[in-house]
Amino acid sequence: MLGVTIIGGGIATGQLPMNLALSGQPFTATISALGAQGITVYPRAVSTAAGEQPSIAVKIDQVQLTDVCLSTVARGLPFIGDVTLFARVPGDNTTAESLVLDAASVGGALTVADVRLGLDASALGEVTGSQTSAITVGESSAAVTTVDVIALAATGASLQGLAVSVEGREASC
Question: Which has the higher per-residue pLDDT, 151 or 16?
Fold first, then answer.
């Protein structure tokens, strides 16, 4: 138990790296605010353990997130039933670089600058092997955003105050 506490404390204070693998299990993410620079959005298919899924690919060069909550439900566990895993980071303590998010849906209020619509994503270096339209944004901010996450990756991230918990029921952020 002491080892888990030390490792959890290291992750929460940003001293240890953390890798989150979603493997086709859907996550719901809620964020009360975000500020981002260098955003590209385009449609694509992503391979998961559940098979190919259509997604909204969102690539962000730099992002700062406020009040992050991730949740996913594991259904039908033997002797337990349904449980929900939560990962929460309160406040404006979450940052990431080169974040690539594949989402089934994204919703919220958004303010953007330097918007370009209808660009060829393959010409931007974002997509290889197929042509698709893209949207690029120089800077943006959003409030009360909800994302149904299919896959997520980042080259670097800092999560100050991370708390991971499990509840013995189906719930979401």
Answer: 151
CB-side neighbour CA atoms (13 Å) of 2? 0
Cα–Cα distance list, 109 to 32, 106, 140, 144, 173 (Å) = 10, 10, 11, 7, 18
Q: What is the pLDDT of residues 82-136, one digit of tens each?
A: 999 999 999 998 999 999 999 999 988 889 888 888 888 777 766 655 567 888 8
The pTM assigned to this predicted structure is 0.76
Q: Cα angle vertex 33, ends 57, 20, to 5°?
A: 50
